[in-house]
Amino acid sequence: MKAATVIGIVVAILGILGGAMMEGTSPAAFLNIPAILLVFGGTLGVTMASVGMETMKKVPGLYKRAFSAEPPALGAKVGLIVGFAERARRDGLLALESEVDSIDDSFTRKGLQLVVDGTDPDMLREIMETEIDAMSARHKAGASVFKQAGGYAPTMGIVGTVMGLVHVLSNLAHPEMLGPAISSAFIATLFGVGCANVVFLPVAARLQALSEEEVEERTLLLEGIMAIQSGDNPRVVAEKLMSFVPPAQRDEAQNADPKLSAVPDAAAA
Questions:
Q1: Out of the domains of life, which is the source (predicted)?
Q2: Residue extents of the structural domains in the chain
């Protein structure tokens, strides 16, 4: 479910607020503007100093990806590769040249173009694996923004609390002010720890999971492209690639694509 990240964050926030209200805390007590500015402004600044401005510009897109990314359609990718394998086995590898430009996925298009161009198998694999490694490195850099923020935010919260306690200690002559002042001081720590563990670190983990899914998808495509170049039987290609598809999705993929219906069910593997 692509909205799971948003739902999970909302559930966590509602759970925290609900628990606080059951304890008798008013939500208005959390509206501490100085603490908000210190924690979020400080976290933004030190994170930007760590990863650079260019990476920070990607943050809105990274949030969008984490909150709305579609799950990989591995079964559809298997069907696509098997279709190309059938065409190549029937008409030859050069017959794929007419279909390359119509492929939406740039990774698959590049791999098949290399096949059509007669690239050496070892060189083809090296080129495509380098492409996968570069993609994984880019994704890691994106997730690191949120990992960095998740590490800095609690520290910014502690800084805010210490600053608040300094203010408290400077007003010991006014006991009636101590309670509200101490409470306000600890709001900063709450914001720092809360936003790190409710937003930043979960988003970083989600981006890392999405990256791993895409690496798995591209590995499937690479193995399929190599099988096409080797001239493997389409049924053998399908059986090999279906091992990348989770067992729960194999029946659905086979029902959706008749080319895969002859592939043995490997759920027990």
A1: Bacteria
A2: 32-73+125-260
Query: Which region among 7-21, 91-105, 238-252 has the lowest average model confidence (pLDDT)?
Result: 238-252
**Which residues, in sequence order, are CB contacts of 40 under 8 Å at separation 6+?**
191, 195
Q: What letter would DSSP give residue 117?
A: T
Q: Rounded to 5 degrees, what angle do the CA atoms 17, 157, 10 make?
A: 30
What does the pLDDT read at residue 247? 80
Half-sphere exposure of 123 (CA within 13 A, CB side): 6
Is-contact 47 62, C-beta < 8 A?
A: no
CA 188 to chain centre: 29
Separation of alpha carbons 177 and 145, rounded Å? 39
Q: Which residues contact 192 (CB under 8 A, 6 or more apart)?
A: 39, 43, 153, 154, 155, 156, 157, 158, 160
List, for residues 108-134, the tens digit of each pLDDT value.
999 999 999 999 999 999 999 999 999
**Residue 39 pLDDT:** 93
- Cβ-count burial of 48 within 10 angstroms (0-12 exposed, 13-18 middle, 19+ buried)? middle
Q: What is the pLDDT of residue 267?
A: 38
Encoded amino acid at 88, one letter: A
Residue that the structure tokens 């930043």 belong to = 200
- Backbone φ and ψ for 111, nearest 5 degrees, come out as -65, -45
Alpha-carbon distance of 73 to 234, in angstroms, equals 19
